[in-house]
Amino acid sequence: MEMLFSTKGITICLLFFVLSLAAAIQIPLSVAQLPTITEQSKTQVAYPFDDDFAIKCEATGNPQPTFNWTKDGKPFDLLSDPRIIPFNNSGTFMIQNHGIMADFQGKYRCYASNALGTAMSEEIELIVPSIPKFPKEKIEPLDVDCGDSVVLHCNPPKGIPPLHIYWMNIDLQHIPQDARVSMSLKGDLYFANVEENDSRSDYCCFAAFPRLRTIVQKMPMTLRVTRFKHTNDSGSPNAAVTKANFIKERKPKLLIPPESSGISSLVTVIKGGVLLLECIAEGLPTPLLIWNRVGRDMPEDRAATENYGKVLKIGEVSAADEGTYLCTASNSVGSVKHEFRVHVEDQKTRRERSRDSTKASDGISVRKPPQWVKKPVSNVYSVGSNLVLFCQAIGNPEPTIKWKLNGMPIDGRTYRGQILPREISLINLQLQDSAVYQCEATNKHGTILATANVNVINVSPVVLTPEGEDYATVVGYSAFLHCKVFASPPPVIRWVREDSTQSLEGLRYAVYENGSLEIKETMKEDSGLYTCWVTNSVGKGAVNANLDIRDATKIAVTPKNPQVLKSHSVLLKCLSEYDPHLKHSFKLSWRKDGDELQINSTEDGRIIADMDTVFISSVTMEDQGIYTCVASTSLDRVTAESQLIVLDIPDPPAALHLSEKQDRSVRLSWRAGDSHNSPINESIIEFEENRWEPGKWQELTRIQGNDTTAVLSLAPFINYHFRVISVNAVGRSRASEPSARYETPPAAPDKNPENIRVEASQPNEMIMKWEPLKPVERNGPGLEYKVSWRQQGVETDWNEELVKKHSLPLGNTPTFVPYEIKVQAVNSLGSGPEPNVTTGYSGEDIPDAAPSSVMVEVLNSTLVKAMWSRIPRDRVRGRLRGYKVIWWKTRSLLDGKRHHPEKHFLTFIGDRNHGMIPGLEPFSEFHLTVLAFNGKGDGPESSPIMFHTPEGVPEQPHFLRILNFDKDSVTLSWGLPKKSNGFLTGYNLQYQIINETDEIGPLSDVNITNPSTFSWRLSNLSSSTKYKFYVSACTMKGCGKPATEEGLTITDGSKGIGKISGAVNPTQKFHPIEALEPGTEYTVRLVTKNWVDNNSIFEDVIETRGRAYAGIYEGISTQGWFIGLMCAIALLTLLLLTVCFVKRNKGGKYSVKEKEDLHPDPEAQSIKDEIFGEYRWKTSVTNSQLC
């Protein structure tokens, strides 16, 4: 087996060693020894309903002891009564209950004897209780006046506790109790004041003794309550009637505690017990009882009142409950109070206090039975040693000490040692001096007994630790190897390692008096076999032990001390390493703040502890604390901690207080709420006023840091409410409760309106506008605005008008002339400061002149520069916003064809006289006009001028296709460019060799001067070679962008692989592929133009029909139904085109599409190209032509 020893257990082990030396030495049963009482009964009660009673006495010794008894100091023969049944090899006996047990009552003592001595038990008292009874007595009736207070005493008989008292009538009905009538803790019945209906002759007190199963009744008591008494005895109804005892209302008077105890009393209660404080008062009206704690709150979870508020009960009393408790009894006449000064002490303090003092503080003697101060101690002695035994006790009166030897008084005349009242000694002990010594302390309140076994032994070492014990510990811990031995005289103990005779010595080794070896800070090298050698003068012995050293367990918790926002989640993980030999005993558990964390410890599964992890979802403030991972094996136990810190918004501030109140300021103070582990870095102060915008909270100011007071600047004529919001790194707290209201007095305005401006929708009007003052800027009642204006440079006097709105319209003003304007705030208490003057203009009209001297400078085939002369300043009639250039195409210079005049325009902001017109069509005729515009609208256009754009380079050919590949030649076909942009002069054909490594050969050119040529055959090409071909159209201006295609020449006897490609609009749903050869297989791919890897969106293999199928379609084309269907489709198409043309011409003067084309948004175009790209279709021939 393996035994665990760790450094944490060293202190406990050392303490055990010291205690074992001080206590009686354990003698092996194989060694002759004195008897020792091991078990005995205490005071016992013989209840009449029990079947039998056992009185115990057990003892050990070698030889086996024999037993005998005394009763009340006289020998007691267990066989003298057949009701006594003794136990074999034991001093215990049983008394059978046959109904009469009084003969057995008394004090018993057990004696255990063998050849070496006699042990004696303490006295065992057997109590045979009698049935408690109330004394037979005559109880006189009690006569009282109505309203008096009365106490009915119970005085129950003594009996075995517990005792329960009840007040009932002769019919066993409970006497009703309430705040006026109630029973005290002692069982007396108290009336705060009696009423006439309290009169009765059967007040009975019942005392119940549950352990005796007995209830006894006191003689009934009579209470007579007198209300009125006549002054004569004539019985006349007209006779004067007076009260014999005039009932007076009176203030309360305490009955418990009595007045004799004063205004306060001291109560001592044991820690962990129950505190009961009782107050019963009399008075009229019936007093009301209230309990309070002076200076502190009651412990609400443990404090309760009972018996209609007359008893205060506090359970599980702690030191915090110490203090003063106040009982107040009050009625309409007055009140009375009593203080209970409660002192809490623990059991140890009470015992020490009881031992140190035998007299009360007032000098009165206290009854105290004997208590031990020092007791004699059993021990083993070797021959020739000396014996000293001490015995000391205290009590009141002083106890008498008596020594006994083997249960008999010591005769000082024959005893060879010395006997003193508190000490006995003997020198040069011999084997025959072995004996049991008893010390008995007695006074009139009791007797106590202490026993000491004096074993004089001469024996060779007896090793009690089994041979070959296996021990184990972990690296760095201490190991303890035991060598428990009994020997007399005391032995010499030494430890050695295997194959060594050298004793283990040094700082790392310690051999204790009980024989155990400690190896400190163990290492792997300490594993092995150890031997304990034990030697004394009589003989020697040895025992072997084996020690294994394992790797220490290591753990760590991650993350370390995390900070988590409330309602977020956190995962704690315990990382561990341990010795493989200990894997079966390895366990992980979790603790929070020292308490074990159960798996799935919350009902909703919010906290999940699963072996090496703890997951907490929706973290709350209650979750924060220290989480400890505990790893344990059979040899060690280690812990690792991580403190979870929960962050949350602060609690709202509280206790808002206003001080230093002034007309324009006030100091606001508050108490900050809990910051929840994130310091408060800002406080936001908001206000609400109930005059202009009641219920709306507005920010007033912000206070940086964690200050809790601020002086607030206030506006006049505002009834303020304030509240505070605390801010930390997590967020804002809830707003505090509002402060008390504070109203500032009114005053004249401090400022005037801002943002004064002029607006006008008609040329002959002007509307003056401004931003109105905010409610907090009004400063008083009756706010108005004094508006002053005059035409600049024309009028000297100001025109004035007082308005309540924040605008003032003026009519019949000249067109666009400057006015000086000022606006001043005015209220019932005065005017605001002198306002600033603002200049504004009256309403605009459209310009009435067109730009002149319009010219056009042609810069290239698509770009021209327009120039003009500015219109005069007085003809603008407003603020000039800029100029617009309008142009339209009239005809193409290539074919002379006229065009519908779709106008385009460009706007040039500001006062300028030129602008660039891009995006024109080359080789075309245009007309152009210019106009000025202002805020009102556009002025008249200038006279149109005509200009021509020169020829440009053509666009790329519509397509380029490879019609046929041979071994050394290829035939190419292409189409016209989409726009020629001039007269075509021919085509430029280029080609070059390319390969898969992106290396290209030299470029070869073929200049085709005939613009009507659309195919060309290239010869002298290399076979089985990949080529790239380029074709571009040309005008006198130059050649345009080429169309390209790639293809591979063939070897002898094979068909060439060609490639045809073309652009597809992303919005198309289909695309025709032309110029395919019949009976040929093609691969069709749809790819995006901008994709680098050219991955296909779509790919399929198709086969064109052979020439034999042509006849089928020729046959269909001659059928009448087919001709009719085609005519109907053509008619519907013509109708649809007509509708589209009409709607297009109704769309407006200018074409939005053309404006977008002329002024494209580069960014939008880039995004469009990148998202959609340009789809291209590619067709390649993959097989030979089919026959």
Which term fits the overall shape? elongated
Provide the helix percentage. Answer: under 10%
CATH architectural category of the largest domain: Sandwich
Number of helices: 6
| Proportion of strand residues | 35-45%
- Domain count: the total is 10
- For this structure, the CATH topology of the largest domain is Immunoglobulin-like
Radius of gyration: 60 Å
Pick out the low-confidence regions.
Answer: 1-24, 230-246, 357-365, 1090-1096, 1107-1115, 1146-1187
Question: Would you kindly provide a written description of the structure presented here, covering whatever features stand out?
Answer:
The protein is mainly beta. The protein has 6 helices and 92 strands. The longest helix has 26 residues, at 1120-1145. The chain has 10 domains: 33-127, Immunoglobulins (Immunoglobulin-like, Sandwich), CATH 2.60.40.10; 136-227, Immunoglobulin-like (Sandwich); 249-256 and 263-346, Immunoglobulin-like (Sandwich); 368-457, Sandwich (Immunoglobulin-like), CATH 2.60.40; 459-550, Immunoglobulins (Immunoglobulin-like, Sandwich), CATH 2.60.40; 554-647, Immunoglobulin-like, CATH 2.60.40.10; 654-744, Immunoglobulins (Immunoglobulin-like, Sandwich), CATH 2.60.40; 757-841, Immunoglobulins (Immunoglobulin-like); and more. The protein starts with 9 loop residues before the first helix and ends in a 6-residue tail after the last strand. The radius of gyration is 60 Å and the shape is elongated. Strand 15 (181-183) and strand 16 (189-191) form a beta hairpin. This is Neural cell adhesion molecule L1-like protein.
